[in-house]
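Worked example (supplementary).
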Amino acid sequence: MTEAEFEALRVFLKARSGLALSPDKRYLVESRLSSVCTRFKLESLSHLIREIRAGRAMALEKATIEAMTTNETFFFRDKSPFDLFQDVLLPKYLKERAGSRRLRIWCAAASSGQEPYSLAMILKEAAARMPGWHIDIVASDISTDVLEKAKAGFYNQFEVQRGLPIRLLVKYFTQVGDQWQISPEIRAMVDFRYLNLLDDFSRLGSFDIVYCRNVLIYFDAALKADVLRRIANLMAADGSLLLGASETVLGVTDALTLDPAHRGLYGKTAPMAATPTQRVIGMR
Amino acid sequence: MNYCLIIDDSRVIRKVSRDIVESLDFRVSEAENGEAGLKACEAEMPDVILLDWNMPVMDGYSFLKALRATPEGLKPKVVFCTTENSLDHITRALQAGADEYVMKPFDRDILAAKFQELGVLPASHSA
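After joint prediction of all chains, the assembly is encoded as:
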């Protein structure tokens, strides 16, 4: 793979998925795309990039994006975002939404489903406190492969051990050979959808809680700001956003503000009080 | 520093487990069967116990039932760590008083997450 070919691949990935690949990531390209070459019977990465540049291989483009996308996830990953949901956000919205009895949650980079299913299990455990509530959990991802896995709800032994309390495994999973399948009632609580965060996602509607963890780290600053601004637009006025442990809105956007009491939790920035000039203009 | 007792008849498993648990900042001791494990608990009750199922002399299931019947035996968090991975075994372990269950093979991430879930390892500890 020549420098020019690597550059062409970087441009393609940035334009199509937002993935900002730094020049030192050549090794990642080579390790992740070799299997795509084999699958599409291409002799080398040079051939793969030539096909992509020609713009006539949709399946190859999709497979390339999916191979370069990181799908690392596990149940209750990092624990604290789920403790926060259970101990802070759920009590807050049970009170704030007592009138409508409706709660909408979006997992913006759901990967193979462990994050939305973790939330669904928490909600199921809290069901006795929520009679008559209507909960939407929308879970989106750019990879159709991982979405198919998520919808099927099958996980191997390694996956169900990473972060999932054993009592929840026993309660909500069925052993199928050497796999574990999450129960139909939990699967039915999550609406999985294909979504590229580069595209307009306003049609998803308004959300009370958004989980967008460990995806913005792959975007450059301008794209991060754009995605965060559009997420903020979708959030209810008192909505909550949870980012990954290494992610922040600081220096990226003013549309969101860190909750000083809870690391990784953000709310919409309150509209600034109008200046006297604005008030006069507004009155005219 | 929290104290972990590893009960397993395999010296290799004990060594691997010890390396992982020590890397999580635990003080560790070992026992090769349930009977030796009970004696170790009499000497000093651990904060957490990693427990194999199939062992000679006294298996993990019998150990757990005996431990939970003692006055101080409710204190330690007990994590079964076994090749027995059927739902039936897991259910029996929980009914006998196990707090968590790890199916071999396992790695540091899995054990760290289980310990965090049980509250014997701070959530802030890098898993």
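Two points are worth noting when inspecting this output. Chain A is about 45% helix and 20% strand. The first strand of chain A starts at residue 102 and ends at 107.
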